[in-house]
């Protein structure tokens, strides 16, 4: 039996991870979940939100499913999500945005994927206060990380039969840092002559995405733009409740939804488990459990088609009602 690390998170994390574990279990696939707690709840006892045991577990198991862990704004410990990505060198954040059945959105032809560099840029966390009235954050872009993420995007395009890779930067303003990223993209592109390329400024990308998202297939970008744009693309397909994600490294992978811990709806049996479930489906494909992945995907689609949906996507079902419906459709 395969062992997989499960970080059940905080906020709505435990509710949606319970739902997803139940669905996978009901599909017939037996997984030994190595449950690891992290975040604010463990700081008291273990002195850190990301104890070494969590990293060890992922290193041993190679794969983790992660529910959201709260990132405190402006104070307190640094983001567990960012620390995890850095510690395990999960350099590629892959965030597909594809329409789901029966979720009313502005467009019905969205099928794109954001490939976000996950280890540097402003997320390197190199910042300091100069004095009481000023602060400085340093944007780090290296050739190594930029070439690696661009290569990942082209490989993704080849594997998933996508015809074009677009790169989004602000190279007109950040001439050195984003300029280097763009330079790396152009260099790597030369190895993939069959894949078309497109270069766009990230502000124009936002405009184009809200006007006609069907023009994009794979979009690669530095960390901060990727974080922001993937919330935008989540909005194109029905919101954060359905936006899946994966953080891929050379040695391990952590599958997690785009959304945060949604403390505003914690404990109300309202949270949509779809984003975590779609992330888990990708995880099952990653570990070559494709038959089970497809079985669960079909049950999810059937449930949505039958009109059973959580509140965030226009329905009335609670988390548990939605979960039970998926299980009965398996
Ligand atoms: P973070 O900074 O931790 O990524 P965030 O600012 O993206 O968090 P979220 O916690 O993702 O914020 O929540 C944003 C909004 O989306 C909230 O109103 C929340 O209730 C809603 N939301 C997020 N995830 C879900 C979900 N799975 N089901 C229903 N609503 C959700």
Walk me through this protein's architecture.
Helices cover 40% and strands 18% of the residues. The protein has helices at 13-26, 40-46, 52-61, 80-87, 143-159, 177-189, 202-211, 223-236, 274-286, 290-305, 319-328, and strands spanning 2-7, 31-36, 63-66, 92-98, 111-117, 127-131, 134-137, 164-169, 196-201, 218-221, 246-248, 253-255. Helix 9 packs antiparallel against helix 10 and helix 10 crosses helix 11. It is an alpha/beta fold and 330 residues long. It has 11 helices and 12 strands. It starts with a strand and ends with a helix. It is globular. It folds into 2 domains: 1-98 and 239-330, Isopropylmalate Dehydrogenase (3-Layer(aba) Sandwich), CATH 3.40.718; 106-236, Isopropylmalate Dehydrogenase (3-Layer(aba) Sandwich). Strand 8, helix 6 (177-189) and strand 9 (196-201) form a beta-alpha-beta unit. Strands 2-1-3-12-11-4-5-10-8-9 form a 10-stranded mixed beta sheet, with helices on both faces. Strands 6-7 form a two-stranded antiparallel ribbon. The chain binds adenosine-5'-triphosphate. Residues 12, 71, 240-241, 259-262, 264-265, 271-272, 275, 312 line the site of adenosine-5'-triphosphate (ATP).
């Amino acid at each position: 039996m395969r062992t997989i690390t499960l970080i059940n998170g905080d906020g709505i994390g435990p509710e949606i991870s319970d739902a997803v574990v139940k669905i996978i279990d009901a599909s017939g696939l037996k997984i030994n979940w190595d449950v690891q707690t992290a975040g604010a709840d463990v700081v008291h006892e273990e002195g850190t939100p990301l104890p070494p045991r969590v990293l060890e577990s992922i290193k041993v198991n190679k794969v983790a499913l992660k529910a959201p862990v709260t990132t405190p704004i402006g104070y307190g410990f640094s983001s567990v999500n960012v620390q995890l990505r850095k510690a395990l060198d999960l350099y590629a954040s892959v965030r597909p945005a594809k329409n789901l059945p029966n979720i009313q959105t502005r467009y019905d032809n969205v099928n794109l994927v954001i490939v976000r560099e996950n280890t540097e840029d402003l997320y390197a966390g190199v910042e300091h206060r100069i004095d009481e009235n000023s602060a400085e954050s340093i944007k780090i872009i290296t050739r190594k990380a930029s070439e690696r993420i661009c290569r990942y995007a082209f490989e993704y395009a080849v594997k998933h039969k996508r015809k074009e890779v677009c790169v989004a930067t602000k190279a007109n303003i950040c001439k050195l840092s984003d300029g280097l990223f763009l330079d790396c993209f152009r260099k790597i592109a030369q190895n993939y002559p069959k894949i078309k390329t497109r270069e766009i400024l990230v502000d124009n990308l936002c405009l184009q995405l809200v006007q006609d998202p069907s023009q994009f297939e794979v979009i690669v970008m530095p960390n901060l733009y990727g974080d922001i744009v993937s919330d935008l693309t989540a909005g194109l397909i029905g919101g954060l409740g359905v936006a899946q994600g994966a953080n891929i490294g050379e040695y391990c992978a952590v599958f997690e939804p785009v959304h945060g811990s949604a403390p505003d709806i914690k404990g109300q049996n309202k949270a949509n488990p779809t984003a975590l479930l779609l992330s888990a489906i990708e995880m099952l494909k990653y570990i070559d459990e494709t038959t089970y992945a497809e079985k669960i995907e079909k049950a999810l689609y059937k449930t949505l088609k039958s009109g059973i949906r959580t509140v965030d996507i226009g329905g009335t079902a609670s988390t548990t009602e939605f979960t039970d419906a998926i299980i009965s459709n398996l």
